Amino acid sequence: MTGQPPSEPVLRVEQLRKSYGRLDVLRGIDFSVAAHERVVVIGPSGSGKSTLLKCLNFLEPYEGGRVVFDGELVGWVERGGRRVRAPEKTIKRMRQRIGMVFQNFNLFPHMTILENVVEGPIQVLRQPRAEAVAIADELLRKVGLTDKRDAYPSTLSGGQQQRAAIARALAMRPRLMLFDEPTSSLDPELVGEVLEVMKALAIEGMTMICVTHEMSFARDVASRVIFMDEGMIVEEGPPETVFTAPQQERTRAFLARVIH
Fold first, then answer.
1. Are 177 and 101 in contact (CB under 8 A)?
2. What is the pLDDT of residues 192-243, one digit of tens each?
3. Rounded to the nearest 5°, which phi and psi values hold at 49?
4. Which of 5, 83, 107, 192 has the least CB density, counted as fewest CB within 10 Å?
5. How far is CA 255 from the centre of its chain?
6. Can you tell me the distance from the alpha carbon of 133 to that of 149, in angstroms, rounded to the nearest whole number?
7. Backbone conformation region of residue 165, classed left if phi is above 0, alpha if psi is from -120 to 50, else beta
8. Which H or E run includes 72?
């Protein structure tokens, strides 16, 4: 023991609340994520999982609680006991360090795969083009798309587009990766190729939070599983505990429906 205090979590979420009108979507969410941790969020549709991810990088402004990333409050600035929205440049700077992969790829259709990957580093990080291209080529090799670098998104399968979207997010050198059901819009035979890329990132130590319905991925890759229902965390723990000996009846009922 060195006597050093434990390192600050990469992400800390405290009593997070989010509503749409009268509908309470998130009702007091508390958890934290340490560096290199792989948190997988599971739960029924409508339980607030995707909204949670969007609040973490302020794509959805949250009303109550706190999201602290790298020691900095996300989205808001506290002044004189009041909370006001942070300047857009502050929010953008924070988002640069949080990569996000969505269900629907969101690639620029008029750009080649290579151009999609280098756009952010060149425009936002001000990387020299030659350096950005070299990094992009390495990332495309990593996700198995070297031969598609000059192709346009419309010519790729859904699985290939999603792998390109992962490469694009990684090109920004994020400290944290968010995956919002990245395989849910893919044909079943294409799911595995995307999950393999995500497993490789996990092995390399990428800090990640993944919302997914792929229970085998959660069981194999997660260092911690969070089960959400009705806007709350019902249960969390190591995958071997959550999947084999869940403590809560709601968790047991959900797993009975989705694991065959």
1. yes
2. 999 999 999 999 999 999 999 999 999 999 999 999 999 999 999 999 999 9
3. -65, -50
4. 5
5. 22
6. 10
7. alpha
8. strand 72-73
